[in-house]
Amino acid sequence: MLDISPYQLVIASLLVIFFKQIVGKVGKEVLEENGWRLYTTVGQRLGDAKLKELGNRRAELAKIDRERKSISAQDEYARWTKLNRRFDKLSGETEKLAESQKDRKAQLGRALGVALFATTSLPIWVFRIWFRKAVLFYFPAGTLPYALEYVLALPFVPTGGVGLTVWMFACNSVISSLLFMVCFPFQASVPPPARPTNEKEDKTAPTETSKPATPAS
Amino acid sequence: MSTELSAEEKKRILRERRQAKMSGGKASSRLNTILSQGSSVNSEATSVLDKTTDETKETQKISPTVEEGLNAESNDVFGLVDRSALSNKQSSPVAEKLDNNAEDMDQLFKQILSQNSQENGSNDQNDVLSSLMRNLLDPNQANTAAPGADSKSSEKEDEYERQLVEYKKYQQSKVKFIFLVLRYLAIFINFTYHYLTSEGDSFKSSSYAHFRLNAPATIQKSFITYFITFETVILGTYFVLLSRSEALKGVTESGIILKGLSLVSLVAPKVEHYRPLITSLLNYAELLWMLIADVSLIVVIFGVISGF
């Protein structure tokens, strides 16, 4: 049934593990939020009435907010108050509409979870069960010491070859290291902290301001 | 009204008579008489009133109302004493005495705890507990914290310690990043050199087993020789940094194993002797994981080129 070549298995497992690591790095919650945003955008274009109304109200809310921030409350108080009242009313209505879409959002979250499972965890389990004794590739002779080749061949593969277990472990290790190498330069640097000074010492030290004023002669 | 007064007068007269009997060292004999009533065994108890210790001297200094109350209580075998009236009289001086005793005990406890905490380098009993909790949560904070009596300065110190831990973690990540780049570069350069200079398919991996029979011995062995040399130099440098640098050391000690050791050492202090050994083992374990990660890279590279 699953008649694929060893090299296809190598690449397929590498891509699945890479995708799984990316999902783990990004986070499932972030993916759900973005998925929902995409769904609402596409849903509006496809003509979903409620989503369209929600989108229109959000756009109007953003427009009112921009207008309100662009004018001064002191100079144009009446207009600002009117805009503020409209904004509050509209934000209340938008929230109610968004609440009604919660069930749909939860359904989308569940669907996304199933999709992620089907594309990341399920293939790995299928490969591990179906191809557990497959030799993916052999090292050229003499490249690595015999002891190392023996360990890398565990548990089912002849010495000199690499099986799926070791291959998946190696892929996980390398991909996580590469992700670390790519992400670390974008991480905010932490400066060395400044040791706090003793407030009591500062208070007891004489200062110019604390000296009593000399009486005028 | 007249009956109440006469009843009160009767009580007062009874009290005075009993007091007269108690004075002059007769309290013990009266006590033994009461205790021996109805039994064949004669008791030889000594009444508290007859004791010639400091406590009795203090009791003699008590105000008359208190003394009266104490005597009345001790004499009231049949429950004739009006306890409510007594308690009203007794409440303030006796309560004061009890409060004073309680305050003395509190001061005594505070002195004991402050002595203990001063031996540990702190001046506040709360700091003993807070240093314990800090030791559990993060050994770095316990070692470097200087808890002060002022709450504001201790908050600033805590904030400083937190920032210091964050800084050390960032420094460790930075060092790991640098060494990771070095290791991967060394492996890629080594592999690329041998792949380009090898004859035919001698340095290629394949899903076919017969590829293993075609390789001349020299090239493959030099690959592993260079690999071991680079790994020894790079990992050796990292180990020296790990064992000597204060920044890297502090973060290693915040790991879960050493935190567990700190918890266990609270119950069994002898376990603390093994801390340097366990720290060394953890450093070696980190080196081993780095070596395994580098071998994994070799496996992945050979795996990817196996299809070409």
How would you describe what is shown here?
- The complex is a heterodimer of chains A (217) and B (308).
- Chain A has helices at 6-26, 28-46, 49-70, 77-100, 102-130, 146-152, 164-183, 199-204, and strands spanning 137-138, 161-162.
- By secondary structure, chain A is mainly α.
- Chain A has a domain at 27-119.
- Chain A is elongated and about 85 Å long.
- With 308 residues, chain B is mainly alpha-helical.
- Chain B has two domains: 2-108, no CATH class; 152-305, no CATH class.
- In chain B, helix 8 packs antiparallel against helix 9 and helix 9 (217-244) packs antiparallel against helix 12 (275-305).
- The longest helix of chain B is centred in the middle third of the chain and has 47 residues, at 151-197.
- The radius of gyration of chain B is 42 Å and the shape is rod-shaped.
- Residues 85-91, 119-124 and 141-147 of chain B have low confidence and may be disordered.
- At the A-B interface, helix 1, strand 1, strand 2 and helix 7 of A face helix 8, helix 9 and helix 12 of B.
- Chain B: Component of the Golgi to ER traffic (GET) complex, which is composed of GET1, GET2 and GET3. Within the complex, GET1 and GET2 form a heterotetramer which is stabilized by phosphatidylinositol binding and which binds to the GET3 homodimer.
- Chain B: Residues 16-70 are annotated as: Disordered.
- Chain B: Residues 51-60 have a biased composition (Basic and acidic residues).
- Chain B: Residues 1-174 are cytoplasmic.
